[in-house]
Amino acid sequence: MVANCQTFYYVLRGETCTSIAAKLRISAQQIIAWNPNARLDCTLLFADYFACVGLA
User: Fold this and answer.
1) How many domains does the chain have?
2) b/e burial code for range 1-28 (CB count within 10 A of at least 16 → b)
3) What own/partner pairs with CB < 8 Å and gap ≥ 24 does 16-23 have?
4) Where is each LysM domain found (predicted)?
5) Strand locations in 1-56, DSSP E?
6) What is the pLDDT of residues 3-50, one digit of tens each?
């Protein structure tokens, strides 16, 4: 997760970068950029963890 993250989202089971992005009206590419540990294909974005979805 990037150091200047300001907004967090609790990932639910079954959600993907694409579904979260659509729900929050941001791009999947932004989620991937702000959560580099999730990998480029978003396979390491896990349920029951927080993801960065907005910067300061």
Assistant:
1) 1
2) eeeebeeebebeeebebeebbeeeebee
3) 16/42, 16/45, 17/42, 17/45, 18/42, 20/51, 20/53
4) 7-53
5) 5-10, 50-55
6) 999 999 999 999 999 999 999 999 999 999 999 999 988 999 999 999
Q: Which two tokens stand for residue 47?
A: 């349920």
Determine contact, residues 1/54, Cβ cutoff 8 Å.
Answer: no
Q: Using alpha carbons only, what angle is made at residue 32 by residues 29 and 38, rounded to the nearest 5 degrees? A: 155
Q: State the residue range of the domain holding 37.
A: 5-55
User: For tokens 């990037």, what's the residue?
Assistant: 2
Kindly report the CATH number assigned to the domain that includes residue 25: 3.10.350.10
Kind and range of the H or E element at 34? helix 28-34
Q: Locate 8 and state its tokens.
A: 């967090």
